[in-house]
Amino acid sequence: MTKSAVSQMPPGKQLLLFILIFIGVFTAFNILGIIAVGLIYGFGLIMDIAHLNFTNPQSIPALYILQIITTTLPIFLAPIIFAYWVVKDPQEYIKPSFRFPWVLFVVAFFVMLVSSPLIEVLSNVNQQLVLPKWLSGLERWMKESEESARRVTMAILKMNTLWDCIKNLILIGFLTAVAEEFMFRGGLQTIMARLTKNIHAAIWITAALFSAFHMEFYGFLPRLLLGALFGYFVAYSGSIWPAVWGHFLNNGTAVVATYLYQKKHIKLNPDATDVFSWWQYIFSLIIIIILLIVYKKVALGKERGPVLNGEELG
């Protein structure tokens, strides 16, 4: 299939192919990861990890291997396969170009810097979620899923040495940022833009899928906001890298703050949800809006909006 033929492929078909590719790659690499860890550490350790038992000192290195093979690699490879071998247009579906004003990295840095209060208030609102009684089973499953994810994260983020912190910066900070941005803001957001013909709808739909994908329901709203911010970084710059940078800053800051807190170098718990006041929430929202306007003007100029298939979307 030629690139011109691919460009005429209905976006619904593109979305279906993208999902099928991800499911196939995800399944294959999950089997591969379980076999690899089983052969290296024994299949008994696999069962311990499945039951969230991390008492075995080998469980943490096994978790790292599982994280890379069963999660990071599939998320990274699926959009690569789709962009290079299915639609044959990596520039459009991954957006790896560095042709954008580098000052956008600075603007993105300040966006992430001032986003903490807004993320906190959204997290607090999210934590108040109570479903109707007839959905009590779903709510119980959501809480159990949240607790499982929390315990896995705590195990990985238990850092005894500086090297542990550096490893997490590489895995959770950089590699995760690259993989997730390639998949969501590269592949999925592009498909959603073609499907909806509206860049803003595409950004927020993709952000919602990004947040839901993490299976941490009581963090849905703050992750939705982050996904939208990353989406606008890509839409206005035409490149994936400002979003990777913002994603890395968010994840990397959490890793470093957790390490410093564990080593008692700082007193503020990174998981605290009562750090800011209401006026800081409002200030955060206003500054983020202003910075996004600045980001757009720097990236695109004042006279044009993000472009899809040669047409301005505004």
Notes on the structure:
By secondary structure, the chain is mainly α. The chain folds into 2 domains: about 80 residues; about 210 residues, no CATH class. It contains 13 helices and 2 strands; from the N terminus they run αααααααααααααββ. The longest helix is centred in the middle third of the chain and has 35 residues. It holds the Pfam family Rce1-like. It comes from Mucilaginibacter aquariorum. This is CPBP family intramembrane metalloprotease.
Which keywords apply here?
disordered C terminus, two-stranded antiparallel ribbon, 2 domains, 1% strand, 314 residues
List the helices and strands and how they pair.
Elements lengths: L2 H5 L3 H31 L1 H8 L8 H28 L3 H4 L9 H12 L1 H12 L8 H21 L5 H35 L2 H15 L6 H18 L3 H22 L15 H23 L6 E2 L2 E2 L2
Helix pairs in contact: 2-3, 2-4, 2-9, 4-9, 6-12, 6-13, 7-11, 7-13, 9-10, 9-11, 9-12, 10-11, 11-12, 11-13
Counting H and I runs of at least 4 residues, what is the number of helices?
A: 13
Q: Identify the strand order in the major beta sheet.
A: 1-2
The run of helices and strands is HHHHHHHHHHHHHEE
What is the average of the pLDDT values? 91
Structural class: mainly alpha
Largest sheet: 2 strands, antiparallel
Transmembrane segments: 15-41, 62-87, 99-119, 161-179, 199-217, 224-244, 278-295
Protein name: CPBP family intramembrane metalloprotease
InterPro entries: Rce1/LyrA-like_dom
Domain CAAX prenyl protease 2/Lysostaphin resistance protein A-like: 168-252
